[in-house]
Design goal:
about 290 residues; mainly alpha; three-stranded antiparallel beta sheet; two-stranded antiparallel ribbon; about 10% strand
Length: about 290
């Protein structure tokens, strides 16, 4: 709906009137046929129609555009009275600034801010009304700190109110303690399950380490036994080596004696016997 034409001062151009409500354009839109409408009016019209209300040309909401700039400027320069004129406001201002003025107008009717009060009062008289409003709230004069309404003055009992407040606080505290208790129990259960699971994992790891240690000890014992056997074999080989060296030295000595003394038969028999012994000894070592 547009602005009531009776509020305006002076002549209003016909082109600045809504083609539907015939009042001065409010938040205007323009059709392709250049007829202008209030936004609320044209959208309401297009719910049941699909043509322009002036020339019946087909239009669609998507084709509507803002008003031409020169028309918008002419519209904003129009002078009109405040809507609170009937309450005593004599302000006349441009259409462009009327909304700002009416939001702050001292003659505007506003509701009382006290809960339960249905009185509509002029903005300029609000403070006076709040001072005497039967729904106004104030702090208890007896010092209990409770906020009371004037209508409840005769029914207010400081002791009863404080007891009620204490019971509410006690109930709230009990609820909070129970919530904290349940939360702690839940956390403890979660930690307990985690610790049991961790203990099981550690126990399995310990058993695995024990098994690995047992295998390592077995391998070490096997290596030590093999080392002892190898050491014995080396000692035996060293003993046999010394025996062979003694035999070789004795054989060399006998050979020298044989060369110097000639071909005496009595002396030749002994080296031959030793040589036979040496020949037999390597065969025994080889067999071992």
């Amino acid at each position: 709906m547009g602005y009531d034409i009776e509020r305006f001062v002076g002549y209003v151009n016909e082109g600045l009137l809504c083609s539907i409500c015939r009042d001065v354009l409010e938040d205007p839109l323009q059709a392709p046929c250049e007829h202008a409408f209030c936004t609320a009016c044209i959208h309401g019209w297009l719910v049941h129609h699909s043509n322009c209300p002036e020339d019946r040309q087909m239009i669609d909401a998507s084709l509507l555009r803002p008003l031409y700039r020169y028309m918008k400027n002419d519209l904003n320069r129009l002078q009109l009275h405040c809507k609170n004129r009937e309450y005593g406001c004599e302000m006349v201002c441009s259409l462009e600034s009327i909304d700002r003025h009416e939001r702050e107008c001292e003659y505007s009717q506003i509701p009382c801010s006290n809960a339960g009060c249905t009185v509509q009062i002029e903005r300029r008289n609000l403070d006076g009304h709040l001072a005497v409003c039967e729904y106004r709230s104030r702090e208890c004069p007896n010092g209990c700190g409770y906020t009371i309404l004037s209508a409840e003055d005769t029914q207010h009992n400081c002791v009863a109110e404080l007891r009620t407040e204490l019971e509410l606080l006690r109930s709230e505290m009990i609820c909070r303690v129970e919530e904290a208790k349940h939360e702690m129990e839940s956390r403890l259960d979660s930690q307990r399950r985690h610790m049991v699971q961790k203990e099981s994992i550690l126990q399995n790891e310990i058993e695995e380490l024990k098994s690995q240690m047992s295998r390592m000890m077995s391998d070490v014992r096997s290596l030590m036994a093999a080392e002892r056997q190898h050491r014995q074999e080396l000692e035996q080989a060293e003993l046999e080596k010394r025996e062979l060296m003694e035999l070789l030295r004795g054989l060399q000595k006998d050979c020298r004696l044989t060369t110097t003394e000639g071909s005496r038969k009595s002396t030749n028999f002994r080296p031959l016997a030793r040589l036979e012994s040496v020949k037999r000894k390597p065969r025994e070592v080889t067999v071992i």
